[in-house]
Amino acid sequence: MNKPLVSVIMPVYNGEKYIRQAVESVFSQNVPLELLVIDDGSTDKTAEVLTPWLPRRDFHYLKNEKNLGAAGSRNRGVREAHGKYIAFLDADDWWDAGKLSAQLKALARTGDVLCSTGRDLMNPDGTPTGKYIPVKERLTYHELLKHNSINCSSVLLLREAALLYPMEHDDSHEDYITWLKILKKYGHATGINEPYLKYRLSEGGKSRNKAKSARMTYQVYRYVGYGPLRSACFFVSYALHGIWKYR
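RESULT FIELD:
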């Protein structure tokens, strides 16, 4: 296999129901890539569902010896990746064709290290909710402090940046912490305001429990170094944006 340009990292835990659609959407992309599925101890038929792709040289199925959580699984995938760029995709989400090529072009144009896209919100059964979450074409660190508009499954970023700022603190929104660190160092991120990501709303997701998600968001600001008062101010802005986003 020629060296991939993009390494797609897909953590999964008991994802037999949806992972087929996620994998198919990865291999519909028209860029040189590899897919690393990081199985975090699934007890269902996830491995069986993935059997058709096992012979492919651009497909890598890695099973954790112990449970690492989403953050640890993504970090393992980044370490074992071969591509210049990293893309994350959760096993219950999927992409439209052309997503990665559009992001590569956008990063070449702006010189940024990270690009995210807009997303359509989907029901658990995969049908559209009719709601779309946009993203600005240019994102700054201070804007991101007030509202996390970067969804993990939409991200394409330089592997060197992903290695420099691995995801930490599973008790919080670990991806949000990483985006903040990256933007603080590099200044800007690029956004493509098109729904290349189809984001499935799940009953068990972190964001479904609003009280828990609120505590985790406040903790993000504490982990990136802000005191209680400033963290509370940022959280108020985040909460107001959240009400608007899901209105």
